[in-house]
Amino acid sequence: MKILGIETSCDETAVAVIQGDNNEIRVLSNIVFSQINLHKKYGGVFPELASRVHLESIIPCIKASLEQAKTGLGNIDLIAVTSGPGLIGSLLVGVNTAKTLAYALDKPIMGINHLEGHIYANFVDGIPNQIFPAIALIVSGGHTCLVLIKNQLQYKIIGQTRDDAAGEAFDKVAQILGLSYPGGPAIEAAAYQIQKAKRKRQNLKIKLPRPMIDSADFDFSFSGLKTAVLYLVKQLQDGRLENVRHEIAYEVQRAITEVIIKKTIKAARQYEAKSILLSGGVAANAWLRREFELTIKKLKIKFFVPPKILCTDNAVMIAIAAYFKSLKKQPSKWYDIFADANAKLT
Ligand code: KG4
Ligand code: ZN
Questions:
Q1: 184 Cβ closer than 6 Å to some ligand 1 atom
Q2: Which residue among 87, 114, 225, 282 has the greatest number of ligand 1 atoms within 8 angstroms of its CB, and so is best to mutate?
Q3: Quick one: three-class SS letters along the chain?
Q4: What's the pLDDT band for 198 if we cut at 50, 70, 90?
Q5: Which ligand is nearest to the CA of 310?
Q6: Atom 19 of ligand 1 has which residue's CA nearest to it?
Q7: What is the reported pTM?
Q8: Tens digit of each residue's pLDDT (9 = 90 or more) over 71-103
Q9: What spacing in Å lies between the alpha carbon of 335 and ligand 1's midpoint?
Q10: Is the C-beta atom of 339 inside 6 A of ligand 1?
Q11: Which of 25, 45, 83, 290 lies most in the core, judged by the most C-beta atoms within 10 Å?
């Protein structure tokens, strides 16, 4: 079956076409129009601007996606759209476009939870046997969430951030350090300057907190880390930030990585998980991916992480989720789909 996926929950207008048959996925197109350059000057996503740009770009993105997939709307069997959580103005553009297509073409439609989409990005090569119960960790700009998945479509949130999301921490620290937006890739690049120089790594002095790393629950907190960086930078004399910017970035990346790996593994042990499914924009971070792989290698737990291109927001993940859900659940009619900014993973 051919599925058209639409994702507009934040600042990426994304449309994809996949072919799903016999538990196998083929990605036929993946169009992501990122608005990052437009939001850069605000240091974060400006919601009003995001919805306006989605409105302008959604039709060109659908056209480009169908063209790349060498197909037409008539060949689409199912329309999948992110229905929440996200920015309401942004969600409405995707949801109303998808509903209009479903109505006009008389096609079935599925509303997909954005977090569920991130999780399903792990299944671009199909769902392997014996992976449930699984622990999913979604680390993005808007979420840091540990989810117990007992079986397909059975979710239980066991931990989440109490303040900033991990991606948000990367973004805010980057801003404090005078690095570009989005902060994740900028911090990763700055930290790499330390990683590649063994000599520099031996003389590191900056130490930042690992908030809640040993707490009994599975919650997270990253705002203290951001504040610690803020105070550190304030204490520096003029010009000294230049000397330690890379070192701070390296330490921030390590602190965030250590906290999320430790808590995820603790959750996996406690719930006797057979696998860990990492996802979300922060999962594109090479250091985090490698540290996870190295740590899990020693345990009897399978580890999955999507290709980097499917970690940040995209519509392939929404279409994949719809494919596997459609094997277990009836799709809806256009009039049953609604945008919900605070949608919960159920
Ligand atoms: O999943 P995503 O595209 O959007 C949300 O659903 O929020 O995640 C975006 C977040 C941003 O905070 C960005 O800084 C972070 O993911 N990010 C990264 C990297 N690439 C994107 N964080 C760390 N390292 C990266 N390479
Ligand atoms: Zn996302």
A1: yes
A2: 282
A3: CEEEEEECCCCEEEEEEEEEECCEEEEEEEEEEECHHHHHHHCCCCHHHHHHHHHHHHHHHHHHHHHHCCCCHHHCCEEEEEEECCCHHHHHHHHHHHHHHHHHHCCCEEEEEHHHHHHHHHHCCCCCCCCCCEEEEEECCCCEEEEEECCCCCEEEEEEECCCCHHHHHHHHHHHCCCCCCHHHHHHHHHHHHHCCHHHHHCCCCCCCCCCCCCCCCCECCHHHHHHHHHHHHHCCCCHHHHHHHHHHHHHHHHHHHHHHHHHHHHHHHCCCCEEEEECHHHHCHHHHHHHHHHHHCCCCEEECCCHHHCCCCCHHHHHHHHHHHCCCCCECHHHCCCCCCCCCC
A4: confident
A5: 1
A6: 184
A7: 0.96
A8: 999 999 999 999 999 999 999 999 999 999 999
A9: 33
A10: no
A11: 83
Q: Work out the pLDDT band at 197, boundaries 50, 70, 90.
A: confident
User: What domains does the chain contain, in order, with CATH numbers?
Assistant: 2-122+310-336 (3.30.420.40), 130-305 (3.30.420.40)
The verdict on the CB of residue 222 being under 6 Å from ligand 1 is no
The proportion of the chain whose per-residue pLDDT surpasses 70, expressed as a percent, equals: 99
